[in-house]
Amino acid sequence: MKVFQQERSLRTSGGLEVRDITEDVREAVVESGVRDGIACVYSPHTTCCVRVNEFETGFLEDFVEMLRRLVPSERYYAHDDWDRRTENVCPEDQEVGNGHSHCMAMLLGPAGESIPVREGELCLGTWQRVLFMELDRSRDRRWIVQVVGD
């Protein structure tokens, strides 16, 4: 059994941004030499996630609108209350609250996706793409792909 791991970086523009990273994941699968197995794609950030879905403008607009409606940035978040918060304090976070970004990430589920690999190819449906989702402000981000199999 082979285990291959690769880390990639990107700079996000902030807000609710969705990037299609499918081709990068495919490249990693090819580089891994794994013919049959699984590709795990993961974001090590608490305000980002990786999802599999369609990368289509109308859907993405609808999705962003839904998230903003469910988790508005303008409301009170205890996470952003510097008079009460004493844990995991980072000076850059005190300038711009991101409680809403953390809540969005929790609603979206785990930080990554597992995608089967068959005959050296990702087993994605016709319209499925691997999406990296930024839920916070612009910054340098990274994601990890681990391919395991034979």
Properties at a glance:
five-stranded antiparallel sheet; 150 residues; 8 strands; alpha+beta; three-stranded antiparallel sheet; 27% helix
Compact overview of the structure:
The protein has 150 residues and is an alpha+beta fold. The chain contains four helices and eight strands; from the N terminus they run ββαββαααββββ. The protein is elongated, with a radius of gyration of 17 Å.
What's the domain count?
1
SS field, number of helical segments:
4
- Could you tell me how far the N terminus lies from the C terminus, measured between alpha carbons in angstroms? 5 Å
Strand content: 35-45%
The CATH class name reads Mainly Beta
Tell me which CATH architecture applies here: Sandwich
Topology:
Elements: E1 2-11, E2 17-20, H1 22-32, E3 37-42, E4 48-54, H2 57-70, H3 91-95, H4 99-108, E5 112-118, E6 121-122, E7 128-134, E8 140-149
Characterization of the model:
There is one protein chain. This protein has 150 residues and is of the alpha+beta class. It has one domain (2-149): YjbQ-like (Jelly Rolls, Sandwich), CATH 2.60.120.460. It has 4 helices and 8 strands. The chain has a 5-stranded antiparallel sheet, with helices on one face. The longest helix has 14 residues, at 57-70. The chain is elongated.
